[in-house]
Each structure stands twice: as C-alpha cells, then as structure tokens.
Amino acid sequence: MNNFPLFPDQASTFAPQIDLLYGVLVALSLLFAGVIPFVILFLIVKYHRSMKADRSNPVHSNLKLELTWSIIPLILALGVFTWGALLYIDMRRAPDDTLEVYVIGKRWMWHTQHPNGKRENNELHVPIGQPVKLIMTSQDVIHSFYIPAFRIKQDVLPGRYTTMWFEATRAGEYHLFCAEYCGTEHSRMGGRVVVMSMADYQTWLTTPGEVILPDGVDAVADGGVVAGPAVGDPMALAGQQLFTNLGCVGCHRDDGAGQGPSLVGLFGAQGQLADGSTVLADENYVRESILNPNAKIAAGYQPIMPSYQGQLSEDQILQLVAYIKSLGDTSGN
Amino acid sequence: MSTTTGTIPRNYTTESSTSPLEWLKSWLLTIDHKRIAILYLLAINFFFLLGGAAATAVRIELITPSGDLMTSDGYNKMFTLHGVIMVFFFLIPAIPAVLGNFLVPLMIGAKDLAFPRLNLLSWYVYMGGGLFTLCAVVLGGVDTGWTFYTPYSSTYANSQVLLTAVGVFIMGFSSILTGLNFIVTIHKMRAPGLTWFRLPLFIWANYATSLIQVLATPVISITIVLLGLERIFGVGVFDPRLGGDPVLFQHLFWFYSHPAVYIMILPAMGVISELITTFSRKRVFGYEFIAFSSIAIAVLGFLVWGHHMFVSSQSVYAGLIFSFLSSVVAIPSAIKVFNWTATLYKGSISYRTPMLYALGFIGLFVIGGLTGLFLAAVAVDIHVTDTYFVVAHFHYVMVGGTIMAYLGGLHFWWPKITGRMYSEIWGGISAAVVFIGFNMTFFPQFVLGYLGMPRRYHVYPEEFQILHVLSTAGACDPGDRFYRAADLPAALAALRAHRWR
Ligand code: HEM
Ligand SMILES: [Cu+2]
Ligand SMILES: [Cu+2]
C-alpha cells in the first residue's frame, strides 16, 4: 500500500476484463498522442520560415486523405464502443444464483444486511467465487456505492432500488467509497469490503453480530442462532411478521379469496395491470405497490389498497420485499 | 507614463471626455462592440482570478490525506465556488463575449453587432448574475458542486443554493442575448460578396456556438426555476419524498451542460484555426471539413447528455445508445486536429507566442479528446466516473482547450485591441510554463482516477498522497500563478491606453 501503484487491485471477475480494455485504450492513445506531436514537431521544424523547403503546389484539401482520417478513427472508436458495450451488458445482467445483500445508504454511512439478517455498518463481507447482488436504496440524497478493486459502481437513489452484481476473486480488504457527492462528510462515507473464502464467510455469518430476528426487532443474537444464507431467511420471516401486523394478510390471502390479489408467485412474473399493460414484478414494483398503490393497479381489482408512505422504514420495506420475494420463489421452483 | 501613451494613435479607447465621470459614462453606457468587449475582458478576468484562487486553496488542502486547512464544509464550498465561477462566469462567456464581441463585426465587415444596445444589456445581465453569485459567496457560500444534483440541492443543502442558482439563471440570459446577437449579425450583416464559405473559421465557430447558446440555455433556466419551486415551496419535482424524481434533474442539467461544454470549446477551435493559418502563412487545410465539423459537433452535442449518467440507474439500452453516440461525437474533433496538422505542411512557420499557445492547445486537446473516448466506453466509465479521471479529462479539454485558445487569441489580437504589442519573450515563456504546469497538475489525476480516488473528497486514503502532492506541485508552480496574473496587467494596459484630456 505504501509503494507507488499504477493499477488498483484486481479482486473481481470484471477487473481483469476492464483493465484489458483500458490497456488497449491506453495503447491506442499512446499511438495517436505519440504520432501527432511527432508529426507536428517535424512539420514546424521543416517548414519554419527560416528553412529552405519545397513550398510549391501547397495543398488545401484532399478529399481522399480527409475521408481516410475520418473513417479510420471512426472504425476504431466503434470497435472500442462495441467492446465496452459487450462488457457493460455482462455487468448489468446478474446471473440467477446470486447471493442477495441489501444496502441502505444514508448521510454518511452504509448499512448492509445479509439474507440471514446479519447487519454491518460501513463494511461488506462477501465470499469468493459466489456472485453477489446488491439491492440498494438511500434514505436521503443520492449516494454511489463504489468498490474500485471490483471496478464497479452504482448510484444509490432515494425512493427506489438500484442493483449491481459482482463475483469476488481474491481474499483481502478493499476500499468502499461513496462516489456521489452527498454533503459535508461525503469523503468519510466509506469503509471496507472484506473478501473471504466461502467457509470463512459461513462462519462469519453465524458469529454474533447485529442481526435482525423474525419478530422484526433488532437484537444481538447468540452465536450459532442464525443458519447459513440459504436456510431460514430471517429477512423474509421478519417481512412475514410485518405482513401480518400491518394487516396486509387481511386483503392478500394466499388462496386469493381476499379483496386484493394473492401475492404467491407474483415476484419475478409479469403482472397484468388494469390498463391492459404488463409489468415485471421486481423490487421496484413491489416497493411502489406498497408506497404508492394507485400508480399501477393490478387487473381485476379495485384501487382500494391504502398507501403505506411514511409509515415504514427503509429496513421494513426491504423486509416486506424479501418476504414477497420468498413467496415468488415457492411457485417459481 | 502619460508621455508614452501619447504615441498611441486615436482609436476607440481614446474618445475625449471632459471629466472622470464623463469618462466613466463613456465606458459604462457605450454601445460600441469594441468597448463592450473590453468591459467583458475586465469582468471575465476578475472571475478567472477568483476561480483560480479557489482552485489553489483546494489543491493546497489536498497535499495531505487529512483535512487540515479547512473544515469539510469549507472544502466543499471551495470546490463549488471554483466550479461555478469557472464554468458559468469564465469558460462559457470567455471567448465569445470578449474575442467574439470584438472580432465578429470586424471580420464580416459590419459596423457593429446587429443590436448594439442588446449587447450592452447582455454585459449588465452578466454582471448582475455575477453579483448574485458573489453575494452567495459572501453570505456563506454554496456547497452543492457546480452540478447542483437533487435532492441534495433542493432539500438537504444548508447553503446559499438559491442565490447561486439565481446568479446562474441570470447569467444564462446574457448567454442567450449574445448568441442571438451573433446569429442575426452573421446572417444579416455580412459585407456584400462575403458568402458563407468565405467566412473566417472563427465566425463559423461562433455561429455554431451561438446556436447552442440559444437552444440549450433555456433548458437550464427552466431547470433552475423548478429547483427553486421545490426548494422554496416544496413543490415535488425532484425529491422522491415529495413525489419527484431525482434523476430527472440530471437529465435536464446535462441536456444543457453537455452542449455547454461545446459552448466552451467551439469558439476555442475557431481561434486555433485562425492562429494556425496565420502563423504558417497558409490557408487552412480542408476548410469545408472544419466548418461542417463545427456544425456536426453542435448538432451531435445535443444527443449525448446521457453519458454523464451511466451509473445513475439509466436502463441498459439508454446506456448503449449514449455510449454509441458519444463515441461518434469524438470524430469531428479528431478531424479538426488532423486538418490543423496538415495545414502546417508546406507552410512558412514562425514560433510567435500565439502559435505556441495554439500548438499547446493541440497537444492538450488530443489527450483530453482521447480520454473522452475512454469515458464513452461505458464499461470503463463505470469504474472511473466520479473519480479524478473525469476531473482530469474535462480539465484537459476545457482548461487545456479553452484557456490556451483564449490566451493565445488575446495575445494575437492584443495589438488590434489595444494598439500595443505584447512582449514576445514573456509571452513565449508564459505559453511554455502554462503548458508544463498544466500537465504536471492534471496528468497525475488520470492515474489517481483509475486507482479509484473519488472526486470531491476532502480527506482520502494515504496511498493516494504522492499523486496528490505531484498534482498540487504542478498547480502551484510559478507558471500557474504567472498565467493567472499575466492577463490582468495586460487588461490594465488596455485602460492605460486611454488619454486623459
Ligand atoms: C472528444 C469527445 C469527448 C467525449 C467522447 C467526451 C466524453 C465524456 C464523457 C463520457 C463524460 C462523462 C464522464 C463521467 O462523468 O463519467 C465526460 C465528462 C465531461 N466532459 Fe467530455 N468528452 C469529450 C469532449 C469534451 C470537451 C471538448 C469538453 C469541454 C470543453 C468536455 C467536457 C466535459 C466535462 C465538463 C465533463 C464532466 C463534468 C462533471 O461531471 O463535472 N468533454 N466527457
Ligand atoms: Cu457521498
Ligand atoms: Cu458530456
């Protein structure tokens, strides 16, 4: 860390790919930025007014030449664009089997929460070789979740979810920054990302820490209470608890006999809307349905669902989302 | 001193006046485009110095990883002051309002601009905008960054956002008025026989710029009004808690501000075309290509704003389209560079100060433009956006580009503007020192950015310190001070040319 680095650590599957593209761009730039000054130097010396040089028949335009130096850079630029675009599509399309971690940004810290409920502040522990998807939102202004060693960054917005995914490849500790200016302590809004082997991660997950229990109350659990990431998802359990306490169950019964639609199998499916269109039921749709139910009305139902705007914390909304998501999974598989 | 001024022949600066008050009036109420250009020169250089002072403070603070000189709020206000002043009160008006005002009528053979009174009004409007912004600074400053992103600026910031925004709003009208004036003048007042394809390239460049000014500036005006409505009355436009959309602001802001970067660079390109041809004693190579590339840049420039928002939650399709268009927009700029180079071929070249600035411009602009391509490649941008890489990129194009051209142009037309010759020795030294100091300041920032150093950071991890120190060393070398200071005495010399009677 004390030496004089030129490249950041490579710690995700994206890092080497992006560094390669960057390296090619640097090489192309050196070519242009090296050749042009050289040509200019040559010309300004050769044709300095004190020099005897052949100045007969000066050329003032040459269509062929000009087309050449328009088209070659165009081809190169489009090549770089295509390469960057393909990589970008990969970076935006998360694989199916991701480990989902929730992130809440607020001035000036990051909360992260693992599927089993374990919470962290300004830290993120992730396993090697496992695609991880972050589902992020902000409680106030726009922030940006940035891990340079992974070469990824995504703005975190208030009022909606943004996502990003990565697969870590090397154990170690890396910087976590907020990259979108957010006020006074913006430069201190960060911490570290700890990459560990899957086994270590499992142990870490189940050691005491701040966890959230099914009754929706934060508590410090005893060691070993919480199981691995896949089993017994307390985020979803906490969501289920809320679903009952807030009275959602009254209208949303699993058998579909209530005033509202059954939410079983909703998540990840195309929902039919009253105006005839369809919408992908993702995190943002569920969030909107809870906070602003009249924005999109499910087909065949009356717009009678009350808005929960202002009554739920970002944490609680995430728990409800996790619960509704778990309902989606049961029918999906 | 007064004896030497006596040798200056009568010109527009030496109008007779009987008392100092009369003299002041003869300047402040003038409708002569040449005098208005001088008024702009003084005002714009004042803002340039102010913005430069803020930049120095920022760089000095960054010598150490911890915050030592300023509080975090102080630092945030300092870089905001720097950005707002430099972008809105220096870079946008600099070349059109000073050199354009002076030269457009002269180059097309008109007596003055089409609307001389409007021209004076636009100067007053500019000063009014500046006054508001200065008030904001005196009353505590503003800390949103020059980009004013919501909902931070509309709801959370506790600083003088409104005053500053009103300042920028007012300044926008000055921009529109100047643009309008140029468009009408260039269309209607060309000397008989001066057809479009005989116009100097400087005129083409100012014409393209004016089009952007007139078409894009109203967008930022409306955006500022919406921001004000939300901040004062709580009308929900941008803050999701009020039912607004925070990303909408970014769309509106960049729909103006991307074209605005071309407001800054197109006139600079026009200046460079004039300098290169003059000092190689040749007609420019590929006149039509250069003229049309200005227009192409102006048009394409309206279609790429989304490249500032690749990580803002934009859809994948939008990201791909903006990435594609941004890669294409680099081509007209590249064409210009090749054409300037080809102009040198078989020329008769002299290394006068303006030519040195012009060559420096090409060097810096090539680096800036190439790194623009890095940023247009969306996968790379995800890593470097909002880091020092972007900071270095836009300083290479805006500072490297616009300031080199502005200073080169000022030297070149100095004799015409003031009736006096600049010092060739000092001029040459200033050009060299600016070029070297600039590279020392901003080149390390590319490396910093790729390493992951975020922008707008008051404190930063220790491993970045070496590069920050290098950068500050560049910013504080004597040359930098020199060029910021150099143009002030130059402007004063202009006033000295006046003869008291
Ligand atoms: C040669 C073609 C150019 C391309 C392809 C290009 C591309 C880009 C891209 C993609 C960004 C967004 C970076 C980010 O925020 O992640 C950017 C930022 C910027 N560029 Fe360029 N650029 C070019 C030329 C210019 C020129 C000529 C200027 C001004 C004279 C300029 C001024 C700026 C500014 C001011 C910003 C960032 C402002 C901010 O975020 O504060 N660019 N450029
Ligand atoms: Cu931040
Ligand atoms: Cu842009």
What does this structure look like?
The complex is a heterodimer of chains A (333) and B (501). Among the domains of chain A are: 99-205, Cupredoxins -  blue copper proteins (Immunoglobulin-like); 235-326, Cytochrome c-like domain (Cytochrome Bc1 Complex, Chain D, domain 2, Orthogonal Bundle). Chain A has 333 residues and is an alpha+beta fold. Chain A starts with 13 loop residues before the first helix and ends with a helix. Chain A has helices at 14-46, 63-92, 198-206, 234-245, 248-251, 283-291, 314-332, and strands at residues 99-106, 109-113, 119-121, 123-127, 131-138, 143-147, 152-156, 162-167, 172-178, 190-196, 210-212, 218-220, 270-272, 278-280. Chain B has 501 residues and is mainly alpha-helical. Helix content of chain B is 73%, strand content 0%. Chain B has helices at 2-5, 20-28, 33-61, 72-108, 116-138, 152-156, 161-188, 201-233, 246-280, 287-300, 316-344, 353-376, 378-384, 388-418, 424-451, 465-476, 478-496. At the A-B interface, α1, α2, β7 and β9 of A face α4, α6, α9, α10 and α11 of B. Bound molecules: protoporphyrin IX containing FE and copper (II) ion (CU) (2 copies). One copper (II) ion is lined by residues 143, 178, 180-182, 186, 189 of chain A.
Summarize the structure.
Chain A has helices spanning 14-46, 63-92, 198-206, 234-245, 248-251, 283-291, 314-332; strands at 99-106, 109-113, 119-121, 123-127, 131-138, 143-147, 152-156, 162-167, 172-178, 190-196, 210-212, 218-220, 270-272, 278-280.
Task: Please name the CATH architecture of chain B.
Answer: Up-down Bundle
Computed over alpha carbons, the radius of gyration of chain B is 22 Å
Helical content band of chain B:
over 70%
Looking at CATH, which topology of chain B would you report? Cytochrome C Oxidase, Chain A
Number of strands of chain B: 0
Helix run count of chain B: 17
- Please state the structural category of chain B: mainly alpha
Which two chains have the most extensive interface, and how many residues on each? A-B, 85 and 89 residues
Mean pLDDT of chain A: 84
Span between N and C termini of chain A?
47 Å
Q: What small molecules are bound in this structure?
A: protoporphyrin IX containing FE, copper (II) ion
Principal-axis shape of chain B: globular
Strand order of the largest sheet of chain A: 3-2-1-5-8
The topology string of helices and strands of chain B comes to HHHHHHHHHHHHHHHHH
Task: Pick out the low-confidence regions of chain B.
Answer: 1-6, 493-501
Poorly predicted residue ranges of chain A: 214-231
What top-tier CATH class of chain B fits best?
Mainly Alpha
Alpha-carbon Rg of chain A, integer: 27 Å
Largest sheet of chain B: none
